[in-house]
Amino acid sequence: MSIECLNKALKIQFKGQTPTKRLILILLANYCDDLNSCYPSYSHIAKLAGLKDPKHIARIVKEFEELGLLRIEKRYKKDGGNTSNRYFLTLKQEVIDPMGLQTPTPPVLDTPTLGVSTPPNTKEETKDDTKEYMYDFKKFWSLYPRKENKHQAQTKYKVIIKKYDQDKLIQMLERYLNDIEVKKMDKKYIPHCSTWLNQKRYLDFEDYEMQEIVSVKSTLGGNSNWHEDLQLG
Length: 233
What we know:
Layout: H1 3-11, H2 19-30, E1 37-38, H3 42-49, H4 54-67, E2 70-73, E3 86-89, E4 95-96, E5 102-103, H5 122-143, H6 150-160, H7 166-183, H8 193-198, H9 216-219, H10 226-232
Antiparallel strand pairs: 1-3, 2-3, 4-5
């Protein structure tokens, strides 16, 4: 995390700001590395900000780019598919002080261009991709109900996300968890995470509809003394 970038994001004032927009800018700054860059997905930021539609995040980020608060860099997977964008926070927008005077804020990151193109840092990009992958797998593993054979599960996960969207995979897992709760499935019948991934069982839940979990209490009409009624009967 870049403390300098986060401090500037906390202090900066910008045109059309709202509490939601300020929160999103601060969330992006909080994820920034030493180069003031980050690459969280729209859906992840939407979840942290309490918004349901990731497209809302996309519109706000685009607005930040137009205001000069950040620069967007498209990123792609090895197979050519899309992945989350990378954002370089520049925070070049003028700061408005309480007296109404505008004071230009120096950019946090300003890469000079001298007419000589710099080749991409392949090693750095690989490092960034690894960090993102590890973060997403950690989230996936924390949700999976049976914590066994983590290394094998991690290997299978890495293979799958090359062709299957990571956010969608999390969504399929959440549906599977709902199915487990509805069926009150015993842990011994839950496959190892590596098996679930290897057999592509996540595909079984693409058309699955989330169901409401009905507790025993609600089924019995909310009567907490049902066992006494049975004895009296």
